[in-house]
Design brief:
Chain C: It comes from Aquitalea magnusonii. With 316 residues, chain A is of the alpha+beta class. Chain A is 33% helix and 28% strand. Chain B is of the alpha+beta class. The two termini of chain B are 60 Å apart. At the A-B interface, α2 and α3 of A face α7, α9, α10, α23 and α24 of B.
């Protein structure tokens, strides 16, 4: 039975094209009685048999009224889904091991309030939503991402048993969307940027590493920044600029080659990922170098960089 | 407060099933439904307090205890009453075992089943009304339980029920009915029908006469007999023990030669009592569904107290000629000892009258002129010789007294005699064009076998004492008892009579077409509608298809009734969807300019088109509220807008 | 309308990189409301006020509020005239068409309330005699949010008197660069001529008040008000009066946008500035209001 259901489901899904948006109609909506519906049918049957046997006319009426109610429930359950529009929303990437949101938006342009439930596949945790007449709602199904890379949205099952709980109208959606699982950031303190160390009040022992250039003294520069040696030599007030300074002009290089050959791909990606994060946090400009990929500073650099890390050397 | 209570679907379920079992208070020993109602109330309290439910170990012994009590008070757990009682008991206990939605759904389904229970006892229009109320409550509870909002839920329930009503009616009419039961049921012994009792003693009929319930109804085909000719016979009593008349023997067979009379055909609808229904004297052939027993009595083939309807022909004022063997004659002459004075008088009459007819004449004259009075409150006949006391001292009585006395006298005079009980007369209902016979028409009379002509002759001594009783009916004939008769029994003002008759007509139609709708009627209807000459799978399928599609019309109308979202909102939705397909996400808090702003990256022609549409939209909503026509035109243009497809 | 856009352009050459603030200030003026600028010193508040006065051809006064200021210093006093042996009313600086009340939170509450009363009633009552203020009458008050020491923050009930609260903030780098390279603003100010007369302004004000507001838009404003009342993080929601103020500001904004009807976008544009100080939010906590705008669906 279960096997049959599984293969039926596969067959159903196989017929569906991947879609970015769609509108549910006759061809997509399937109807089945719920357990409660079957129970009530059984009751109707029992009442009918009793009516036959005792020749109780009004009991016939009761049995047939229940049957009629079931038919009305079929129509009403169908109406819950019919004409509903859905649109895939782009998913926001997360790090491996986190839950990403598979986001989908439902539009109800009828004057009928809809009570719907949505879940990923056949086993997922269902998400309920009450869609008022003429309203829209975005739903986010949590999706655990265990591997790095691009994860397609799973097939979704949208169903409703409203209003009676007797019939279950359902439809399968195959949303054409994906979420990215970025590599899990692994701290890389050796190549950590200067900024956080300054913040932690360390002395400028490793200044050389992050020192960028000398610049004219500006009001507000701390004494620590002043290049005393220059002052002594040339009697000019000059400040040291560090690469990690928020408004600094320097660009940090985050490169694949920063690591010895012994470090494997995933560890490299994880460390680079952590460093991208750190740069973003500090507002530091950076440039990400991967074999064949170069991400320059630009708007939405974080997303691009993380996406590049996520999809690195994976077939898309 | 109440609203918030009902917000819980579980509460709604409890309320609905309580409503469903309410009528059982009248139909079962009241303690039982009362107990179940209390249990439901207690369950509601526990639900309200979110309290812990009692454990199964406590519930099971309690359930067994309750079932024990049920057994003690009903002596049965099956059949109509036993079954219903057991079911509601189970319902009560199930409610204490209901925790999850699924349990409550089972409870609700049980409620639907229980809604059928009162119908086993009563199928009056009132029962139908209650059925509708029960269904409404259950449907409503179903809505709430499945999570619908309380607001408007009652309306939704009504809508669903009225949409399914035509379907129900079609199925009711066309789904085949069985002529007989699938299996026979143990019959409830102590349920008294409106019929007559097994024996007759002073008081047994007068008790009936004081009631006004309809006993049965009759439609005559063409000729209608006079009221005084309407003798509806049900039972014969052939043995007298000095006080009570009983049916002891009953002949095994009888050869009757009918003579004279004129044929009247009629159809009768009534509730059988002990498988007996009245026949108009004398019905010569057995109606379908039963047999004629000796004594011209009708016995149904099947036991039960469901309403029964039959057609028959009767030989009015015919002669009931049959041969009685010596043994039979002796049996019909048997009397217990006692009542010496009456015996003497009987012999005296016999001597005076000469033949049997002469004896009858003398007897009737004696009753007519002997200072006898017709009354419902005769003095108690408590002496050993009850007949003597009646004949010579009290001289007051009701039909049963007179019949009893006459039969005694005939037997004492050596003539075979027996008592027939049934109904006499009836009231015509001009609205429904039928005759209504009531309990108050119950009657007893005598049949005396005349050896000369070999014929059972009907002799009604009551007619001699109170001719009105036979000619007009009981309510006109007993002035002494009028004050005690219910209002309806008295001669009433015209309008009240009309109301009553209309009511009766409606009741009759209900009986005929709803309660009494059976295989026969169904077949007639199939023929009349041209669906076929018999009710078989083919015709039923055809009828279901045709009727079903007609009944689905309201559903279709509901479906077609397009949700009336204003065109502007609808159009905005369309636009938002069209943009979403292009990857432009518009949210509800975006105004027209925001949308335009977001859509900047659309191809130039699309953008220009969108800009024009949005400008119009803004103008219609925020500048000058648009005429509906204008808005619809705009909506059409929006529907034609397909970005990215040019 | 053309002169209005000319005025707007001129102000933009005067105060660089702040078109939105200028537009809000103009809208506030056209909506017959008073403006509260919450900002650091030196970002151009005075220049803005001055420029507005110049462009609109308004009579301009500036009062630096200090803790020793007295109500009479602003409203004016009755002075005994020996020649006529009578009191003559000497108008204070409040009798101007545009009053810049600098650092209003430095003055004592007494002075603050005297000014605010005058703003509300558009007249000054002294010794039982009332003197009407000129029309148009427009107050730009400034306060420095970061200085708390020795100041008297305006009570929330009185903040209601200001139609809008805006902050100018630092100019964007290019604008600042141009500022550094360009002429002194003061001399520039001298070059600016009035492009509007007081009568024009009055006409504009009337025009703005007559802009169409459809029921649909009113529903949106209502939805916004409701949302502020339901939001838990605000102490109180917006009052009906605030709703009217919002509508007035939105009308003025729509007029500036060159429309004869009000769109939800107009409401959205002015909403944070009309609602912020009424809800007791600090100048940099307007994010929650923008979030609210994102959540309230346009009916």
């Amino acid at each position: 039975m279960l096997l049959f259901r599984k293969s039926l489901q596969r067959w159903l899904l196989g017929r569906l094209p991947l879609q970015r948006a769609g509108r549910l109609g006759q061809k997509r909506i399937y109807l089945l009685p719920t357990r409660f519906g079957l129970l009530l049918l059984l009751v109707a049957l029992a009442v009918w048999v009793g009516a036959l046997n005792y020749a109780v006319s009004l009991a016939y009426a009761l049995a047939f009224w229940i049957i009629g109610l079931m038919l009305v429930a079929v129509l009403m359950a169908y109406r819950q889904l019919s004409g509903l529009s859905w649109t895939v929303l782009p998913g926001e990437g997360v790090f491996v091991g986190q839950h990403a949101d598979c986001r989908i938006r439902l539009d109800n342009d009828s004057a009928l309030a809809r009570r719907l439930q949505l879940r990923a596949g056949q086993e997922g945790e269902p998400l309920s939503c009450l869609l008022a007449a003429g309203s829209s709602q975005s739903l986010a199904l949590p999706l655990l991402l265990a591997r790095r890379g691009r994860h397609a949205y799973p097939a979704l099952q949208l169903w409703s048993t409203a209003p009676f709980g007797l019939m279950r109208a359902f439809a399968w959606l195959r949303p054409d969307g994906h979420v990215l699982a970025y590599p899990l950031p692994v701290p890389d303190r050796e190549r950590n940027d200067l900024h956080s160390e300054q913040g932690s009040g360390r002395q400028s022992g490793d200044d050389e590493e992050d020192f960028s250039h000398l610049a004219e003294y500006r009001q507000g520069d701390t004494p620590r920044q002043i290049a005393w040696s220059v002052l002594a030599r040339r009697d000019v007030l000059v400040s040291k600029r560090f690469a990690s300074q928020p408004r600094g002009q320097s660009i940090r290089q985050l490169a694949w080659q920063d690591y010895p050959a012994t470090v494997d791909v995933e560890s490299r990606l994880s460390r680079l990922c952590w460093r991208v994060q750190q740069c973003e946090k500090a507002g530091q400009h950076y440039r990400l170098h991967l074999p064949g990929v170069l991400i320059e500073p630009q708007p939405q650099q974080r997303e691009l960089a993380l996406a590049a890390l996520a999809e690195f050397q994976l077939p898309s | 407060m109440i609203r918030s209570l009902l917000r819980q679907g579980e509460m709604a379920v409890l309320l609905a099933v309580a409503l469903v079992i309410l009528p059982l208070l009248l139909l079962l020993p009241p303690w039982l439904p009362m107990l179940v109602l209390c249990m439901l109330a207690l369950r509601a309290v526990l639900l309200r307090r979110q309290a812990v439910l009692p454990s199964l170990y406590l519930l099971l012994p309690l359930l067994l205890l309750a079932i024990g009590g049920l057994w003690l008070s009903l002596n049965t757990l099956v059949g109509r009453e036993g079954g219903a009682a057991l079911l509601i008991l189970l319902l009560g206990f199930k409610s204490f075992e209901s925790r999850q939605q699924r349990d409550w759904q089972v409870l609700l389904a049980l409620g639907f089943f229980l809604a059928a229970m009162p119908l086993l006892f009563d199928q009056s229009p009132l029962a139908a009304v209650w059925l509708a109320i029960s269904l409404l409550a259950l449907t409503w509870a179903m809505l709430i339980l499945s999570g619908e909002m309380v607001e408007g839920s009652l309306r939704s329930a009504m809508q669903a029920l009225s949409l399914s009503l035509p379907l129900m009616l079609v199925l009711f009419v066309v789904m085949p009915r069985l002529p007989g039961p699938l299996w026979s049921m143990p019959h409830d012994q102590h349920v008294a029908g409106t019929g007559l009792s097994d024996s007759m003693e002073p008081g047994s009929i007068s008790q009936l006469v004081q009631q006004q319930e309809p006993a049965f109804s009759v439609v005559f085909a063409e000729r209608v007999p006079a009221v005084s000719e309407m003798y509806w016979r049900i039972m014969i009593f052939d043995d007298f023990d000095g006080r009570r008349w009983q049916n002891v023997r009953g002949l095994s067979s009888e050869t009757v030669r009918w003579q004279g009379g004129r044929l009247v055909s009629y159809s009768l609808t009534g509730k059988p009592s002990k498988a007996r229904l009245p026949l108009l004297e004398y019905t010569v052939t057995a109606p379908a569904g039963g047999v004629l027993e000796p004594g011209n009595l009708f016995k149904l083939a099947r036991d039960g107290d469901e309403l029964f309807r039959f057609q028959a022909e009767s030989l009015l004022a015919g002669h009931y000629r049959t041969v009685l063997s010596r043994a039979d004659q002796d049996f019909y002459r048997h009397l217990p000892p006692g009542n010496p004075a009456s015996r003497q008088l009987a012999l005296q009459w016999r001597a005076q009258g000469g033949d049997g007819a002469g004896f009858i004449r003398t007897a009737l004259q004696y009753f007519r002129l002997g200072g006898f009075a017709y009354t419902l409150q005769p003095p108690l006949l408590n002496s050993e010789d009850g007949i003597d006391q009646f004949m010579f001292s009290s001289r007051q009585g009701f039909c049963e007294h007179y019949a009893s006395a006459l039969a005694f006298m005939a037997r004492a005079a050596g003539m075979p005699a027996r008592i027939v009980t049934g109904y006499q007369g009836g009231q015509f209902n001009p609205v429904g064009q039928f005759w209504q016979v009531r309990s108050s028409d119950a009657h007893a009379w005598v049949e005396i076998w005349l050896a000369e002509s070999g014929e059972w002759l009907r002799v009604d001594p009551t007619a001699a004492v109170a001719p009105d009783r036979v000619a007009q009916g009981v309510s006109q004939s007993i002035p002494a008892m009028q004050p005690q008769l219910p209002v309806l029994g008295r001669s009433m003002p015209g309008w009240l009579l009309r109301v009553q008759q209309n009511w009766q007509a409606a009741g009759f139609a209900w009986q005929q077409w709803v309660v009494g709708y059976d295989a026969g009627k169904q077949l007639n209807l199939y023929r009349w509608l041209g669906l076929g000459d018999q009710v078989d799978s083919g015709t039923v399928l055809r009828a279901v298809l045709i009727g079903g599609s007609l009944a689905c019309l309201p559903l279709l109308l509901l479906w077609r009734r397009r949700p009336s979202v204003p065109p502007l909102q609808q159009g905005r939705h369309r636009l938002v969807q069209a943009l979403a397909a292009m990857g432009i996400v518009v949210v509800d808090s975006d105004g027209p300019l925001d949308i335009l702003n977001k859509a900047r990256r659309l191809p130039e022609p699309d953008y220009r088109q969108l800009k024009a549409l949005l400008k119009e939209y803004a103008a219609m909503r925020y500048r000058q509220p648009a005429a509906p026509q204008q808005a619809r035109q705009w909506l059409r243009r929006v529907k034609a807008f397909r970005p990215g497809r040019q | 309308m053309q002169s209005l856009s000319l005025a707007y352009r001129q102000l933009n050459t005067l105060i660089l990189g702040k078109p939105r603030a200028i537009r809000l200030a103009l809208a506030c003026l056209i909506a017959r409301g008073h403006l509260l600028i919450e900002d650091l010193p030196g970002v151009g508040k005075t220049t803005l006020a001055h420029g507005l006065a110049a462009v609109l051809g308004l009579h301009y006064q500036r009062v630096q509020f200090t803790s020793d200021l007295l109500p009479a210093d602003i409203l004016g006093v009755n002075i005994y005239q020996r020649e006529t042996a009578s009191f003559r009313f000497h108008q204070g600086p409040v009798f101007s068409q545009l009053l810049l009340a600098d650092e209003i939170n430095r003055a004592s509450p007494k002075v603050q309330s005297a000014l605010l009363e005058a703003m509300e009633e558009r007249q000054v009552s002294i010794d039982g005699e009332s003197h009407p203020l000129p029309t148009p009458f427009f107050v730009i008050a400034t306060q420095n949010p970061s200085e708390q020491l020795g100041t008297f923050p305006l009570p929330e009930s009185q903040l209601d008197r200001f139609l809008m609260r805006i902050s100018l903030g630092y100019p964007p780098p290019e604008a600042e660069r141009a500022l550094l390279l360009g002429q002194d603003r003061r001399t520039l100010l001298a070059d600016i001529g009035a492009t509007l007369t007081a009568a024009d302004l009055l006409m504009l004000q009337n025009k703005a008040a007559a802009l169409t507001v459809t029921p649909d838009l009113a529903d949106y404003v209502l939805a916004l008000l409701q949302a502020t009342r339901q939001e838990r993080s605000y102490l109180t929601g917006l009052s009906p009066r605030a709703g009217l103020a919002l509508l007035a500001a939105a009308r003025a904004w729509a007029l500036l946008e060159g429309r004869d009807h009000v769109l939800p976008e107009d409401v959205k544009a002015v909403f944070p500035h009309v609602a912020g100080h009424r809800l007791g939010l600090s100048g940099d906590a307007l994010g929650s209001l923008n979030k609210l705008l994102d959540h309230v669906a346009i009916p």
